[in-house]
Amino acid sequence: MADDSQAHRLVARFIGLYNEGDAAGLYDLFDARAHAQFTALQLQHRLPRLSSRLGHIETFRYVSSNAPVTYDGEPYLSLVYALKLSGGLADSATLYLTITADQTQLDAWAFRLAGETDESIPGSAQPAR
User: 4-119 sits in which CATH class?
Assistant: First the structure.
């Protein structure tokens, strides 16, 4: 399995791209299975709406993760981070980021941001257990 520092770098990159409003960069973080669930255009249209509700992510802190599960032969791990926000409807939120984790790299599979508002990318969900 990939190590904790790789997961931390992926989350930091994800948050940086979110804060920049870089939908194309975010889309590139996702693996092929995620791309089958939603298009770059869908993400491009939803990201501004999500950002306007939740605002800018100021800080993030690791909270927990679940035990890895296997879905279609791929290992998945869901990471949970507490976020401090500014400029939106909520002061804090939770980031749920499900990643594929193999021996060499991490790819995002799904994400959900939950604060006073609750938004996610269409079709993104946690893999079945």
Answer: alpha beta
Angle at the Cα of 127 from the Cα atoms of 9 and 72, rounded to 5 degrees: 100
Query: Which residues are CB-neighbours of 50 under 8 A, at least 6 positions away?
Result: 113, 119
Distance CA 27, CA 11 (A): 14
Q: Would you give the DSSP letter of residue 105? A: -
- Does residue 106 carry a pLDDT above 80? no
Cβ atoms of 83 and 93 closer than 8 Å: yes
Please report, for the chain, the start and end positions of each structural domain, with discontinuous segments joined by +. 4-119
Q: What would the two tokens of residue 68 be?
A: 């890895």
Task: Select from 21, 32, 18 the least CA-distant residue to 105.
Answer: 32
CB atoms near residue 2 (< 10 Å): 19
Q: Is 61 helix (H, G, I), strand (E, B) or coil?
A: strand
27-66 confidence digits (pLDDT tens): 988 878 788 888 999 999 999 998 998 899 999 999 988 8
Q: Point out which residues pair with 85 in neighbouring strands.
A: 57
